[in-house]
Amino acid sequence: MPRAGIIVVGEVESTQSEARRRLAAGQQAPLWIMARRQRAGRGRKGREWFSQEGNLALSALLIEDAPRAHLPQLSFVAALAAHKALRALAGRRGRADIADALRLKWPNDILLGDEKLGGILLESEARSGRGGSLVIIGWGMNLAGHPEHVRWPATSLAAHGLTLDAQDLAGYVQDSFARWHDLWRARGFAPVRAAWQRRAWGLGERLSVNTGKALLSGIFRELGEDGALMLETANGKVYALHAGEVERTMPGGTGEI
């Protein structure tokens, strides 16, 4: 992937929106945007994303010629880039405990232990008449602070006594993403899938997944070859889940959709 400098801005609505605005104004992809503050950061399904100065808000805008069906795989590429960057910086600060506690939660979260440290937002659309697809990948990382009273317990690096500079982390993420992206383009999803599974939270364990239609409970057997969560329910049936919210296992999962 061609290298691009990271554009650092003070305050924007969101880095995803700023990347789109700059592309429309004539700037060329790839574009990397980091904001010190976001007024309206967003996560999956249009949810508000907690933004605090000192946290990482970073987006990369790319033009991809891969089949559109393969583009969701880039969220796993982005998660691996974040994991590698965080692990490297924590290790350099002598915090092997933090480096070793980093996990990737399906489909797009970065955990520290069992608490959410960050997330990935991937947006894509076809480029009408111009070929390829527009892809914007957003990284949000709780470095200085984290939200309270959220769906999944959250944490920050500061809460664990580690201070990282957001711009330093952004550079590490960009470098790591370039390597994983090149590997994905050269060899497909298989090496990404294998690497993601080695860092996966909950693999081989009992999970509950809210599909929007039902609450499914079962064993997270593996990541499918297309990125699906393969969940084996109590009746032995294996579901390939392409969307849903992983929840802490609770009574009431039907095991059926």
In brief:
This protein has helices spanning 15-24, 74-92, 96-101, 166-187, 190-198, and strands spanning 6-12, 31-38, 56-64, 102-105, 109-112, 115-126, 133-141, 206-210, 215-223, 229-232, 238-241, 245-247. The chain is an alpha+beta fold and 257 residues long. Helix 2 (74-92) crosses helix 4 and helix 2 (74-92) packs across helix 5 (190-198).
3D architecture notes:
With 257 residues, this protein is of the alpha+beta class. It folds into 2 domains: 6-198, BirA Bifunctional Protein, domain 2; 206-247, Roll (SH3 type barrels). It is 26% helix and 30% strand. It has 5 helices and 12 strands. The protein has helices spanning 15-24, 74-92, 96-101, 166-187, 190-198, and strands at residues 6-12, 31-38, 56-64, 102-105, 109-112, 115-126, 133-141, 206-210, 215-223, 229-232, 238-241, 245-247. The strands form 2 sheets. The chain has a 7-stranded mixed beta sheet, sandwiched between helices. It has a 5-stranded antiparallel beta sheet with strand order 11-10-9-8-12, with no helix packed on it. Strand 8 (206-210) and strand 9 form a beta hairpin. Helix 2 crosses helix 5.
Number of strands: 12
Roughly how much helix do the residues carry, as a percent range? 25-40%
Give the amount of beta strand, in percent: 25-35%
Architecture of the largest domain in CATH? 2-Layer Sandwich
Overall geometric form: globular
Terminal CA distance reads: 41 Å
Please list the strands of the largest sheet in the order they lie side by side: 1-2-3-7-6-5-4
Mean pLDDT: 91
Structural domain count: 2
